[in-house]
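Exercise 7.
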Amino acid sequence: MRKASLRGLGQASLVALFLLLAANAWGIDWEARRTQMVVLDLAAREIWRPSVLGAMKAVPRHRFVPKHLQHLSYADRPLPIGEGQTISQPYVVALMTQLLEIDKGMKVLEVGTGSGYQAAVLAELGANTYSVEIRPNLAVEVKERLRKLGYKVKVKQGDGYYGWPEHAPFDRIIITAAANHIARPLLKQLKPGGKLIVPLGDVRYYQHLTLIEKDSRGKIFSSQHGQVRFVPMTGRVQSF
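Solution. The predicted structure, written as tokens, is:
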């Protein structure tokens, strides 16, 4: 019976099964995996900012994914986290973070907490991080996860379309879900001189990673930084 079941698995599935069994039997050197990810998938590509590379090396991504997928934690790919949501590809997390040029002490708003991984990277950079998650179950889970890991991130359950006006304005805003337009409340909550990044475009297929910059007079400029694919933003944004 065992031989018959293994024969039906593809090569990739057999490799994944072997890694999972090895992880259970001997444990995994997660730090070594993170180092490999940073060197091969980030530094070897367009990620050069030392603070971003340091944060990506420090945050334990395997603590933000379901246990049965932990053996894939440091592969450069998104992974499902439940409720139709994903934890983003490490390279995309690093790229979005780098484009925002975050310095220690900045106030940063994240729309779409999800697993909490991006929020942890922001906190690791020394940002005062505020994050909004629309799904109640995920919001409860991520608050506890970030608390246990020691990341001081303020999380609330709600519609990120409206931002977090009580704590505005923000130096930086990061939207980690696809949108076909930028919410006016978020633009209003962005400081002059601030930056906002969002996967902007057709929410069903692909989007362009779009960086919005607001100058000292409040004028808006935008630039695009590659094609991405995120799960759609939900809530008020869908009524437009």
